[in-house]
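Hmm, how's this folded?
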Amino acid sequence: MAQEQPAPYGSGIQSPEPAKKQRVRIPYLRKMKESGQKWAMLTAYDMYTAAIFEEADIPVLLVGDSASNNVFGNDSSLPVTVDELIPLVRAVSRSTHRPLIIADLPFGSYQASAKQCFKTAARFMKEGGAHAVKLEGGREMLPQVRKLVSSGIPVMAHIGFTPQAEHQLGGYRVQGRGGRAQDLLETASAFEEAGAFALLIEMIPETVATEITQSVSIPTVGIGAGRHCDAQVLVWQDMAGLRGGRLPRFVKQFANMRTLLRDAARDYMAEVEGGIFPAAEHCFEE
């Protein structure tokens, strides 16, 4: 008899796990990879988007250090702090019941040592309610990953282009071209061996990302890494068309929320200025 395989998380088809209202767990994501079924991840930074994405059956939410750019108005991810991110993680974790919530460790909060990394990650788990953390870097981060995993903290490793190292990398550049592809493959295998439960792969050639995905048993999550990763992630403001200006090549906008919100604000302003809002039905009587 053929073994029953898990259905896609958002397919509407009943799946043996996770059951209705149960939290998405790491073993389920691995089973999705084993069965060849892809899944989606989005960033979330507040209770409303988190709850909406849960309604949409998004199985994994990342409270990214991208909040630095998309919430706090910075030019890069570097300035955001642990104290700024923890309340966002808490809001997302409190507002959802099913998605796996991953917290990004911000720049400067984990690179110094495995001990520093553990203390930071523990804060995100205890104070923020995160279920896992994500960190960037190459094989120099292996001691940090081993420490977290041995301490019961699940880790997603982030390789390829790592935004926290943008100045060292010379800006937003595709990584892993030419002779550097082999280094990425070896790094991916090293993170799997160290106990990472998944790899986020950013801005590398599709062929290299495909080879990594095929060479490791843990899920790969692509952003600018082509079509053959096990999952995909986008910053939600990019996905929903909230952000204006030039977008990265790997972004697809699935809505135009910027125009929708702008038009709603203009309509509101026009009704206030015209004396239309509030109307009688918006007022209280004695």
Remarks:
- The mean pLDDT is 93.
- The CA atoms of residues 267 and 273 lie 10 Å apart.
- The beta strands are 39-43, 60-63, 100-104, 132-136, 155-160, 198-202, 220-223, 231-234.
